[in-house]
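pinned: reference chain
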Amino acid sequence: MTESTQRALRDAGLDPAQVRRVISDALAEDLGPDLLDVTSVATIPAGQTDTADLVARADGVVAGLAVAAAVFELVGEATGAGRTAEVSVVAQDGARVARGDVLATVTGPTRLLLTAERTALNLLCRMSGVATHTRAWADALAGTKAMVLDTRKTTPGLRALEKYAVRAGGGTNKRMGLHDVAMVKDNHKFAAGGITAAFRRVRQTFPDVPVQVEVDTVAEAVEAVEAGADFLLLDNMTPEMLTEVVASVGDRAELEATGGLTLDVAARYAATGVDFLSVGALTHSSPILDIAMDLRTG
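pinned: its structure tokens
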């Protein structure tokens, strides 16, 4: 992987070593134990070189161009070809693109381009789909103070990439996992004997870890804040209930609405005064953005 691609990944908040592992696993899945693309080896002369364009097949928001570049750069290394591809990125992550736009150009051994194509597109299309969906939510919340949040409902192994795509689409990340933020949910409250008991146990055990508390009623919201919580997850509340929580809690805690939210009601929920709307669908249900690789002719 070139230094410029590693720098682009770091600038995006991604760990190049982690991206390399994701790509390596994806290539192994696609190329089998012998790391072989039998069709390309059979049909393309070893010395042939070509240029290909990555082209949007639909309007949307692009994300993951540095990840796609890394795929093309790593295929030569993975297959032992000893040659790599040169990637020129044309678009920028987070930009709106239109059908027919060229997003990047790749030049290199034709076998390598065709071998890398599907893995690069799988990641790029997936990330761009998440970014496109997120941008629709960000647009729906424009003019309010509310921001759209993601969740842990991500594709196993792709969490960092999908959460980056949310950022590229204008959203924000919640917690990366179970290790960086404590989330006291209903089952924790039940097992610990209530909101106050659960919150205090977390605070005593991990005094420096941020703590969020899931609440289902206005009374629970007040109890959580009085226990010391400064971030509340307001689960499956109506706009009327959310408005009441905002009035009861004031600025003592950040407030996140969640549960069954859809784009057609986003503005209504944001108007209640909450700080965030969390949407698991950003990562678990976003359709891909259709992107293709076209070899140039002539």
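why pinned: Residues 3-129+287-295 form a domain with the Aldehyde Oxidoreductase; domain 3 fold (CATH 3.90.1170.20). The chain has twelve helices and twelve strands.
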